[in-house]
Amino acid sequence: MSGHEPRRLAWAYLSKVVQGSCPPLARLVAAVGPEDAARAVRERDLSSFLDRRTSARAHLDTAARDLDLVTSLGGRLVTPDDDEWPSWRLLAFDGLGDGRDDGGPLALWVLGGRPVDELVARSVAVVGTRAASSYGEHVTAELAGDLAAEGWTIVSGAAFGIDAAAHRAALGAGGLTVAVLACGVDRAYPAGHGRLLQQIARDGAVVSEYPPGTTPARYRFLARNRLVAGLSDGVVVVEAGWRSGARNTASWGRRLGRPVLAVPGPVTSAASTGCHRMIREGEATLVASAADVVVEAGPIGVEDGGGGPARALDVLAGDAAAIYEALPAHGWRSPRALSEEAGIPIERVRALLPALELDGFVGSDETGWFRER
Amino acid sequence: MSGHEPRRLAWAYLSKVVQGSCPPLARLVAAVGPEDAARAVRERDLSSFLDRRTSARAHLDTAARDLDLVTSLGGRLVTPDDDEWPSWRLLAFDGLGDGRDDGGPLALWVLGGRPVDELVARSVAVVGTRAASSYGEHVTAELAGDLAAEGWTIVSGAAFGIDAAAHRAALGAGGLTVAVLACGVDRAYPAGHGRLLQQIARDGAVVSEYPPGTTPARYRFLARNRLVAGLSDGVVVVEAGWRSGARNTASWGRRLGRPVLAVPGPVTSAASTGCHRMIREGEATLVASAADVVVEAGPIGVEDGGGGPARALDVLAGDAAAIYEALPAHGWRSPRALSEEAGIPIERVRALLPALELDGFVGSDETGWFRER
After folding, report:
1. Do A276 and B285 touch (CB under 8 A)?
2. In terms of domains, do A320 and A235 share one?
3. What is the pTM of this model?
């Protein structure tokens, strides 16, 4: 193989160096482009924060090899450069902190033929305990199967138990499903799910923010849960213990402003304890059917006419929301005026405006930027 | 038998004439006493509202016979004259309307040896569908048994299914239970529960606001549900269809300011549909165990030190709350001053103050009325 574009090689290098989310690096890339950012990382010509975050792996350049490997598996590296980048979905991360695993992914390694943005345009995360009961597997199969049959993509983590039942139900219904991994997409994890992951890649996508060869680790599972929630319109927990990965995914759902839903079960079943407690403590809304899920996770703003601005403020968060709000209802603003109005650095405003335009929230002409109606 | 006190005969007569709740009549009795009220009813010397409400049965005087009958069954008529009258519990009805079945009971016909006020001092209603599943009966047995073993009286409606399971669990745990009937306490309804009702009367109480001989009727079941909620610290629904008596009891619980709780079950079970929807729509809090119920229905104000005034304002409603609030934190007020301050007729203030005193919220001396600390 070889012969990758320099810009894509730079993305692959950066993905390898940061191993996950790094909002300051993403902002640097948005400002100067991936090649200059990669050069700065390589030469350690960085802010002390970014230097600390990248110096340990700055010398590792496996970019060409990683791209070769994912290509040989029929996959690809998807970056904000690509049309299929799900920027609309990932805007919700903009409002969050700059912690190690708090932001959106820098890039996504993907197996599967469909564009990622289309796959997750209408998607629900269905997650739960590995120690699922037969009730839990049955309910997951019904719920995920019904949702998939109605055109919802089922996003989950490919774990044993509820996750696997959700993926399988989507496949069985002839629907779409996305598995988000805590390791490289070249690794079958858990090992027993090799065939399932192949089927998911064929009919949907297997996705990871980690480059090929990355092994699973506890913090990567937590970061993966954040992506499962981030790539979905809502999070449904079917069975979960009180301390479980599924509750972590649910808490990411809340943080990202996604509806968090939980399916009840017999109070005599330990597997439903977490769901019941989440409902009881107001952390999740009870859902008993796919129809209930659609009511909660369905298109926003449909009920009140679906006007553009209401929708924008529902889905935008953080700087993106502040920039949107700084635009007048009628008329134009320059990036500099928006920067002053919103109190956000001009570089950040310049980086976010194209994303907002791509998602149809704002438009631009020779006069400046304006709200799309 | 015979030889009943004239005052008690008057209560029995009034209970027979109004057949249930009649707040205007209760106020008349509080103002002039039962004998003068009975005379006014008999002679139709009444407001047109009360005349309409009582004229159809004013000529029926079965008071002595009714009292004889209930005595022969080992029972009694309990009225606001009696120390065991659960006035504290029934204050919640004061804030409600003057509809036919909206108020507290005028009097209670009771089988069972224990004082009613003690029986319901710490009590939970456990209700649900007649068409209970084995899961529902199992969970009811666990929950009601655990609550009864911890000293909670289980209040229910003696119906088939969840109600019966709740009563039986309380009896089985050696605890207390109260059955509230929609017919006279001399009738075994449902017929198959004759023996169960005898056991309940032996270890707790069988209660009705209708005189002996009254047959069940649909509106009496709804009125009965209101009393089930009214006599309890909280309402737990174990299994219920969407349109069911148990939901009616739950809605009375809400109206009376009682915590309304629902037990989830498999989403595959039609018997849990009503519980799930109540939880989903915020009409009930999910509970999965007796411990959850105790947290919700347990003593009010315990968490923040249990001060008197906070507790009073939590449990008082309507005129009673207004009169309590019209009292200064320190010092005294006359009934007339309270009437002016609270905007409540002086007769009503005079009628409610003794009830508030009986319940320990207010006190009086030669100077006037004051808040109890």
Report:
1. no
2. no
3. 0.77
